[in-house]
Design a protein that fits this description.
With 175 residues, the protein is an alpha/beta fold. The chain has a single domain (5-161), classed as Rossmann fold. It has 6 helices and 5 strands. A 5-stranded mixed sheet has the order 2-1-3-5-4, sandwiched between helices. The chain starts with a helix and ends in a 22-residue tail after the last helix.
Length: 175
């Protein structure tokens, strides 16, 4: 499933309204591959919503995700889908299972299959189009702007003192 930005905001708003998990996936040392962890760090923790930085190994969070008993899980990752840097797309579990859409593809497939089998959980992948995934470079401004705008549109923004660019650490779990 691919949707326009406004539709994505609406779908995510509904999905994250209940007991939900956001799992940020990616390598923060590989430029825009750090989109998932960055997005998770921007999200305010609240009753019914938790965000975790899974790094490059989201499969290590299967047990934790199942113990939270979420009604929805949003996987967030950098995915080259041919868009403009910072553009977002939303993919359903069918796309996760059948397409090679991420550098963490096997982990995402394993996680989606396991969670669907164990729980009746809605799972989706929020994909950020990277500009580059060069080793040793910081996350690009387009990804940062896109992530901040989306978090703001969803009403999940943290306070200014908690801003990850201000070097305050989020209380997200890093396993």
């Amino acid at each position: 499933m691919i949707a326009a930005r406004q539709t994505i905001v609406e779908q995510l708003g509904e999905m994250l309204a209940g007991n939900a998990l956001i799992l940020g996936i990616g390598n923060t040392l590989r430029e825009d591959d750090g989109a998932g962890p960055y997005f998770a760090s921007l999200c305010r923790q609240r009753d019914g919503l938790k965000a975790f930085d899974c790094g490059e190994a989201p499969e290590t969070y299967i047990g934790k995700a199942m113990s939270e008993n979420p009604s929805a899980i949003l996987l967030v990752d950098a995915v080259d889908f041919g868009g403009e840097p910072g553009e977002i797309r939303l993919f359903d579990t069918e796309a996760i299972r059948t397409r090679g859409i991420s550098t963490h593809d096997m982990s995402l497939k394993l996680m989606a299959e396991c969670l669907e089998r164990e729980r009746k959980t809605t799972i989706a992948l929020l994909a950020f189009q990277p500009r580059s995934m060069r080793l040793g470079f910081e996350l690009g401004d387009r990804i940062k702007q896109s992530a901040r705008r989306l978090v703001s549109d969803l009403g999940l923004a943290r306070g200014p003192a908690e801003d990850p660019d201000g070097k305050e650490e989020n209380d997200i779990d890093r396993g």
